[in-house]
Amino acid sequence: MADLKSYLNTQFGFSDFRPGQAEIIRAVLNGEDVLGVLPTGSGKTLCYQLPGRLLDGLVVVVEPLLALMEDQVARLQASGEKRVVSLSSRLLPADFNQVLNHLASEKFVFLAPETLGRPDVLAQLRRLAVSLFVVDEAHCISQWGPDFRPAYLQLGQFRRALQPGATLALTATAPLKVQQDIIQGLNLTQPKRLITSVDRPNLFMGFETVEGPKQKQARALAVVQQVQGPKILYFDRKKEAERYAQLLQAQGIAAAFYHAGLATLERDRIQRQFMANQLAVICATSAFGMGIDKPDVRLVLYLHLPESLEAYSQGIGRAGRDGQKSATLVLLEPNDLNRAGQFAASLPDQQLIETIFKHPSAYTDFDDPQVALIEAYIQAGFTQARVEAQLASRRGEKQKSFEAIAALATTSECKRTTLLRHFDSTGAAHTDFCCGALTAAVVAQLAPGAAVKPRQSQDWQQIFGRIFKQN
């Protein structure tokens, strides 16, 4: 342990490990398969970055999003590790092949499950010694795989083809059922489980119900004004995210909207502005947030019912990552429960599955998420029978997830205890900074957040003068 601490200090600049990190790292270095469940902001990436540098061979890291890959590549390079690349759709074909053909000289490679499943990528990786296979945000195997990214359901066979020295699955939220999905999905045999509590005592878990849409809007805008510091507002519809961003802008608040309908460069720009405190508020769908390591977010506000307790725990975990007191709030009107229940049932039925499997080429250009899901299964090589069984099972799981989050929203008991019970954790003592309505007394306890740094516009003379040092 002394040597690991010394390496931690010299290579990463930390004096000590956070809870769970040392145990995971030691197990990986011993060649053990590990499932690590660490709360948001607890330093999961160190659990593969540190041992990856010490192990011989290549470290293959599966990430769900391009932004996450690029962030991890940048962090490793900033820490002095230059043998790191990503294989992604942002590379031109010639550049992709160039990186792929020179993986033997790299230490870390980041890629999506769809990229890993490409025959040329798997073939090249099989020629190399893979010391560590990492699945970051491993709960996606359980939650994203069946819903819209079937490649996550194939990670077990990809892993078997690579035959890594050790496998590490990392996530922040995984109740027992999700843990089992991850272990089965990766075909792990009795992995070491290191599970820590999801409790974040510095986060206030607010829940409020209003009469209707007008009251919801008025309350949301008031809360945004009351809470100082960076804020994330979540919506289940793109148009609502855009509308609220415009409302906030009209009040003189630096706000922007973020959803999957934006171009990649635009999403990157908005994310960078938020990280740099040039934006005070992000109005977003669930497309925003995973891997966002901004320490001083002081409010995460949901204007709809999250789809599950796992999604809710992930979302609120983006607040207060610096350990300072921060607020979360789920703001609901009566119809929101009905809408969430309908959404939970929105998976392709057997008739649609049969129709598309008969003529898959006829539906490739359909702009419909259910059709796109079935097409993704077909492209991944799934049989019709397997798709029907997978979606039938998932439909039941989504219904249970809806019932669990609805129970949390409507219970009169302590919200924190209810949430922790779902994740197989012990309850916590109820305090005045625990859960309930987000009152003025609670807001008064919140830590201050960074002020917005307005971007200063410059005319072309100033810009050229600075470039050529003429002013």
TrEMBL record:
Its EC number is 3.6.4.12. One of its GO terms (molecular function) is DNA helicase activity. CDD domains: DEXHc_RecQ. It is an enzyme of class 3 (hydrolase). Keywords: ATP-binding, DNA-binding, Helicase, Hydrolase, Nucleotide-binding. InterPro entries: DEAD/DEAH_box_helicase_dom, DNA/RNA_helicase_DEAH_CS, DNA_helicase_ATP-dep_RecQ, Helicase_ATP-bd, Helicase_C-like, P-loop_NTPase. Residues 217-364 form the Helicase C-terminal domain. The keyword Hydrolase applies. SUPFAM superfamilies: P-loop containing nucleoside triphosphate hydrolases. The keyword Isomerase does not apply. Residues 25-192 form the Helicase ATP-binding domain. Transmembrane segments: none annotated. This is RecQ family ATP-dependent DNA helicase.
